[in-house]
Amino acid sequence: MADSFMAQWVYTDTVKDHFINPRNLWKDGEDFKADGIGEVGSLACGDQMRVGITVKDGRISDIRWLTYGCASAIASTSMMSEMAKGMTLEEAYHLTPAMITDKLGGLPEHKFHCSVLGDKALRAAIDDYLLRNNMENPYKGTTAKIICECKGVTDHMIEDLVKSGKVSNFEELQKETGAATACGKCRMKIMEELNECLHIYGK
Amino acid sequence: MDRRVVYLDNNGTTRMADEVISFMHENDDLYGNASSMHTLGREAAAGIEWARNEVASLIDAEPEGIYFTSGASESNNTVLNIFRDVADRGDKRSRIVTTEIEHPATIETVRYLRKKGYRIDLCPVDSIGRIKLDELEALVDDDTALVSVMTGNNESGTIQPVKEAAAIAHKHGAYFHTDATQAIGKIPVSVKDIGADYLSLSAHKFYGPKGIGVLYAKPSVPLSPFVHGGHQEKGMRAGTYNNQAILGLGKAAELARENLEEEHRKLWQMRTALRKGIEERIPDVIFNGSDDESLCLPGTLNVSFPRAEGESILLYLDFEGIEVSTGSACATGSLEPSYVLLASGLDVELAHGSVRFSFGRYNTMDDVEYVLEKLPPIIEKVRSMSTRRV
Fold first, then answer.
1. Does one domain contain both B299 and B224?
2. Predicted confidence (pLDDT) per residue in B91-112, tens digit
3. ipTM, 2 decimals?
4. Which of B330, B332, B372, B381 is catalytic?
5. Are B178 and B56 in a shared domain?
């Protein structure tokens, strides 16, 4: 009992370190010319993140970020920025929240969604870089996970539909994709993913 | 451990008063079961009755209306449970009217009751977080069994027009309950003056021990046993008396009564100085609640810092030894920011960026200076990291 109670509120030393001394922060007035910028999150959920990258020889040569968010959001974005620097675009595109939180030595469970934003903002920045340079985006879709097997609905499809405003509730998502209309065993997972996206991208 | 600690979360809980701790220790031989007939039992019973009288005179009530509970959460639950029983009996008067800004001990309980099919209505508040009496008037009718309005709000500090609310309840034949947990020891609270039929309080909010509180129920109002299984508290609340805690509560009540004016003056002075300092040293801040001394609990200052997120502020302050609380969702474990601030029409971002400073008797003007030294660079730092920076 003591464990679960403490775990809710206690951050690891690594989290504290990144919270107190955030790395690669996008300083005000700094002359950082980003090749790509990505922004995710909404103020409704109290977390918003912006990531800027420079790219050289297919690798992330430098990175900056800003966040309106809590300690976990600050620490996880800071950690993500250190991990992403030097990575190829493909590697960076496949950074996952679990990889970031592992490096932080874990985050309290209810704080996990904060780190979900860091990798999403990074992917958005890479998408933006490729778009700006009229380059093909070979990564989009490669990180997708199928949630509804019957109808082949992926987490990315749900994310895109919510982001574009086409879907704002479960019924609309079902109409749009057919998710959870066949065997229905994915219903809970679909709802979880939908709620997460609605939360991040605002209602 | 010479790290400086400036505890500014006194609305959360308070440090026990030195006088209370000594008093409890002095009486630690009072271990008899107060329900027993032998000498030790009778001595314990006498101590408990002394404490009952102290609490009664603190809230200007009849001692026989004082029931000891584990705290205001239990007291609030109990009152709502009594009126659940009233509704279950098929009484035409079955509706409960309370407010959007009650403590979770009330809000969560009425939500549960509503889910079970009971009729519940919530009265809205204005921009300082004070209930709208005309809306209350419109909500209370001949089918209303109970009206419950807190005396002062824990987050905004806003003092509620409980006397007027009680009058509205009584005009329509309903009973009136007030959760006075946050107001006790800070402003005068008299059940007679308010016209309260029920009142809840917790000892730990005014320098008493945790885990002990009171439900006041005016003699002759509806009551049903809250804990079955014993004849304690006239058969209403079973369980062997927690002698030491009850004595601690009694001592805290005595102190609260004696120090009320001085406490109010001191808390208001510190709050005023902090507010002034923040206004002078930090650009672009919004003060929530009211700055009118007659409308605000004296030790509460709730501030929103646009473009800065509350949990980050809280933790950076914590590193400096300053303990506060925030309305940010991040700190609550839920995903929604403070429902109290949202109810008063505050923007979501400002609710996420709100910080509550709450003073107590052990704070000094030095603490205010220390906060005013540490806070501005922290706000600047959080804002400089923000996607919302200008």
1. no
2. 999 999 999 999 999 999 999 9
3. 0.84
4. B330
5. yes
